[in-house]
Amino acid sequence: MTLDLTAYRKELFAFMHSPPVAPAEQEAEFNRLALRLYAIQTSNNAIYHRVAAARGATNPLNWRQLPAIPTATFKDVDVTLLPASARTNVFHSSGTTEQRPSRHFHSPETLAFYEESLARAFTNACPEIQSLDWVFLTPPSGKAPYSSLAHMFSALANRHPKAEFFGHVTADGWVLNLPPLIERLRSATLPVFIAGTAFNFVHLLDALASIPLSLHLPHGSVALQTGGYKGRSRTLAQEDLYAALRTQLGITVIRSEYGMSELSSQAYDQPEIGNDRETIFKFPHWVRTRLAGAGSFTPSRTPEKPGLLEIIDLANVSSAVAIQTGDLAVEGGSGFTLLGRAEAAEPRGCSLQSSAL
Questions:
Q1: Is the peptide bond before 218 cis (omega within 30 degrees of 0)?
Q2: Considering only CA atoms, which of 235, 82, 164 is closest in space to residue 153?
Q3: 139-162: buried (b, 16+ CB within 10 Å) or exposed (e) per residue?
Q4: Whole-angstrom Cα distance, residue 293 to residue 302?
Q5: How far apart are CA 228 and CA 345, in angstroms?
Q6: CA dist 206 → 51, 83, 217, 305, 349 (Å)
Q7: DSSP for 71-134?
Q8: pLDDT band at 120, cuts 50/70/90?
Q9: Is the backbone of residue 231 left (phi > 0), alpha (psi -120 to 50) or beta?
Q10: pTM as predicted
Q11: Does residue 353 register a pLDDT over 50?
C-alpha cells in the first residue's frame, strides 16, 4: 500500500475537530480510521508487519483486534514507518543511564499529527487554563530535544502569548533556575498556570522550605503535574504532594496528565470525578484504551479487573496505532485509573529525567 499520510491527516483532523455525535457514529468512524492507519503502518513498518503476521492479525475487522506493540520493543528495534533519511526528531523514554531508552522517531509530517493532537486535547481538557500566564518547570525543547514532554510544553507555549520556561539542563539532568522562578511567582498579580513533573514540583517546594517561604499565587492559579517518582527521588504520596502545593504555593486547582514518548496523544484527569488519592484519566475521542492480562497480548474481557493498559492512538502515525504499556490500570465507564507499574516493567516517567539523566 502506498504511504499516503496527507489523505489520512485530512480525515483524522476532521474527526478531531468534529462536533459531538451519537456514540455509535463516533465509534464507527474511530474504527474506520484505526483500520486505515493500521493498514498504512503494517504496509510500511517492517516491525509492525511482522507482529501482525505472527499474531494472525493481517485482516482485522475491529480496532479491538489490532495487535499492540509493547513499549519495551521501542528499546530494541526501530518501530517506525519512516526511512532513516526522513527521521528529523527522536523522543527517548525516561530512564537511568544504565537502561536503554525507547526511541520514537518523527518527521515534520508526523510531528504535525502529534502537535495537533496535544493542542486539541489540552484545550478541551483544560479550558480554564487558556487565559492564564504560563510557567513551565521543564527546559524548552531546544535544550531537551529528546524529551517528548519538553516538546509538548514548547508546542503549547508557541500557541500562547505569555509562556516562560524555568528549567535548564546540566550534567546532572534537569534543574530549576530557582531565583528567577521564585521571583516570577512571588511577583505574580494575575493567575498562573504552572506545569512540570512531580520531581520539578518537589524541587521547587524544597527550595521554598529552605528559605523559608510560602507563596500565595493569585486566586484561579492552576498546577499541572505530569509523571511520578518511580523510586528515583524523594517521593510524596499524591495527596501529600497536592497538600504541599496548596500550602506552599496557595494553589487550589491541581490537574494531572498521562503520556509517554511512544504515544502521540495524552490523557488528562477528570477533576469532577477524581480526588487527591485517585486520579481518573481520560483520553480524547481519537484514542481508545483496553486492558490485557499481564504477560499476554489478549485484551481482557473484564475491564473492571486490573490489566496492562493498551492504548489505540489514531495520532500515533509514525510507529504503531496500538501500544501496550507497562502500566497496570483498571477501567471504569468514563476512564481509567493507574495502579502502578507491572512487576517486570522498568520504571518510567518524565520525572526520571530530572533525577537520572
A1: no
A2: 164
A3: bbbeebebbbbbbbbbbbbeeeee
A4: 10
A5: 15
A6: 47, 46, 17, 38, 21
A7: TTHHHHS---SS-GGG--EEEEPP--TTSPPPEEEE-HHHHHHHHHHHHHHHHHH-GGGTTSEE
A8: very high
A9: left
A10: 0.90
A11: no
In 3D space, the residue among 10, 19, 12, 69 whose CA is nearest the CA of residue 35 turns out to be: 12
- CA pair distance 10, 13, nearest whole angstrom: 5
- Domains contained in the chain, CATH given: 5-87+283-332 (no CATH), 113-269+345-356 (3.40.50.980)
Q: What is the Cα 100 distance to its own chain's centre? A: 20
Per-residue burial over 227-266, b if 16 or more Cβ lie within 10 Å, else e, is bbbbebbeebebeebbebbeebbebebbbbbbbbbbbbbb
> Could you give the dihedral angle defined by the CA atoms of residues 350, 88, 120 and 163, in that order, rounded to the nearest 10 degrees?
70
69-70/322-332 β-pairing: parallel
DSSP code for 145: T
3-state secondary structure of 28: helix
Residues 114, 120, 121, 127: what is their CA dihedral angle, to the nearest 10 degrees? 150
Assigned C-alpha cell, 155 = 508546542
CA distance 236 to 223: 16
Please, what is the angle between helix 178-186 and helix 198-210, to 10°? 80
How far is the C-alpha of 247 from the C-alpha of 208, rounded, in Å? Answer: 11
**Amino acid at site 140:** P
Per residue in 48-91, pLDDT tens? 999 999 999 999 999 999 999 999 999 999 999 999 999 999 99
**Residue 177's closest CA among 129, 230, 138, 119?**
138
216-262, pLDDT tens digit by residue? 999 999 999 997 654 445 788 889 999 999 999 999 999 999 999 99
> CB of 335 within 8 A of CB of 281?
yes
Q: How far, CA to CA in Å, does 171 sit from each of 39, 103, 179, 231, 353?
A: 43, 21, 20, 21, 11
Q: Answer whether 290's CB lies under 8 Å from 310's CB.
A: yes
The Cα 61–Cα 59 span in angstroms is 7
